[in-house]
Amino acid sequence: MSDDGESKRTRFEWWLEDLSTDPATRVAGAVLIIFGSILGVMTGSLHITADIGEVLSGQIDDSGVKADVNGAVFSALIDNSSGGDGMEDVTVVLYDDDGLEIGRDVTDSGGRFYIEDVPRKSSKIVVEHPDHITKWILLVPGDHTQIIITLSEGEGVEETDMRGESFLSESVLITTIIGSVTLLTGIAGLLGGVEAYNGKSHFRTQFLAYLGLWSQGLMFIGPLFILMGMGLSYLSRKQFGLLEA
Known about the structure:
The chain is an alpha/beta fold. It has two domains: 24-64 and 165-245; 66-119 and 123-161, Immunoglobulin-like (Sandwich), CATH 2.60.40.10. Helix content is 47%, strand content 21%. A hairpin with a 5-residue loop joins strand 5 (123-128) and strand 6. The longest helix is centred in the last third of the chain and has 31 residues, at 168-198. The protein is rod-shaped and about 95 Å long.
């Protein structure tokens, strides 16, 4: 059993030795590194080439998208003793940024309203009821599951902005930075693959291929190919430098 195990181990070592001296091993490693890095370059390019103007204006997210607006209208509490009930027959009107009506509904006995299939873009809810303060609510349909509106007795207009602060500019900047880093590391990986193919410097090959891992081409697929290529390059490391003058 011992001699048989030694024989198997020796044959495996011979096989590794054959691989390490075969130029095809180094070339295969170079091809794998280059292929994985190309995926990273493509991923980075997709991040960078997005239409920044459309992202900032919200056209990409909002184009052709519909949403529903639903909620309830309640009367305000008075001295914690009365009020707080759903208000029936209150008209709820939804306007777009140009002041055009895009939907309306009348509350039921529980004060509930429902406006369906309206464009998902900045809009304004207007709730008017006799002897009550008019409510203007700025929102983006679909951002909130329920819109709760409380009407107080009195006159005038009360405006509430539920759109929140926009971080689109920051998101675009972060996306651009990530895309640039992904693209640059993908290019570094390509150079590492070329270095492996030329067989000049094993250290430069591994270093550039390591940078290429950060390109994250198609999440894990690109880095997986690069790792396989780095393994073959390491196995054939004795071939490096033989082609230098």
